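Take a specimen:
=====
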Amino acid sequence: TATGGSSAGIETLDTYRVVDGVNNYARYSTVLDTYASENGFGRWGAEIAFGRTLAENSSDNHAIVKISEGGTDLHLDWNPGTWDADSNSTGGGVIWQNWVTHTTEALALLESQGHDISIASFTWLQGERDSNSAEKAAAYESNYELLLDSVQAHLASLGYSTDDTVFVTSSFSHLPNYLDSESVRLAQQNVMGGMENGFYIDNSEFSSGSNYVDAVHYNGAALNIIGENIANVVLKNYLVPEPSSLVLLSIGGLLVSFSRKR
């Protein structure tokens, strides 16, 4: 799923919009898992196993919205820059602008269907593109804090509280291909450690080339484990309102999940 390349294969913008129903998870998971096993990779990310795990461990309905683009960084592409929630200006990087636009559209669609939405989680799996530059790596912590502050500000401007939201960062590629990877991972840990509901998942178990489809991207087997681990953190730490269904927003390197009352 991730921007910067933490996915199996080549990401495309707006791969998914809204997919309703648990059965759709089974359908997409089966097709994509089969494709991955036959070809070694697929055009998908951790959101597949993430969604499947949530579907299998809750009685809620599910939907996925995916917005992503490979080869992008937090330094510029995802950086909100001078964007302001009150004016909803068009400042910031192009992928950040896409996030604002498509998140707003997805939530409006769900609202139009009569759902009351609460923000369950926000998950980030990205970092490779910022690890190939000492300048980007040095600014990563402040850029990530700005991104999360801006995400919360935008959701608040739409009327959604993130007081109980679970924030999860899952570490990106552990192959030694980028000089500043550890600096970026440390920045991610620092940001999560500074949040009351922040959680960092260490994927250093995937340190061998057999866990990747190339020099950067996790393969399907690794992504399935990563997605499952992310879902388990969300399930453990977010209390879903009852009665409710769970809506998952997978956004580039972001996985944002929402629960909604019927």
